[in-house]
Amino acid sequence: MYYKKTNRILILVILAMLFQIIAPVAESIKERMDRWTNRETSNTVTIV
Questions:
Q1: Is the pTM higher than 0.70?
Q2: What are the b/e assignments for 2-40, b being 16+ CB within 10 Å?
C-alpha cells in the first residue's frame, strides 16, 4: 500500500519535470507555427 502511494508521487514528480521541460519547447514551436501562419495570412487572430 505504501509502495503504491510513493510510486504515484514519483510518477507525479516525473510528469511535473517533463512538463517543465516540454512547456517552453511547445511554446516556442507554437510561436514558430504562428509566424508561419501569419506570413500566409496577416490578419489571423490566435485565441489561446
A1: no
A2: eeeeeeeeeeeeeeeeeeeeeeeeeeeeeeeeeeeeeee
Is 48 within a domain? Answer: no
State the greatest distance between any 2 C-alpha atoms of the chain, in Å, as a whole number: 57
Q: Residue 40: inside a domain, yes or no?
A: no
11 lies in some domain: yes
Q: From first to last of its 48 residues, what are the pLDDT tens digits of the chain?
A: 566 788 889 999 999 999 999 999 999 999 998 887 776 555 555 555
Domain enclosing residue 3, as ranges: 1-34
* 39 within some domain: no
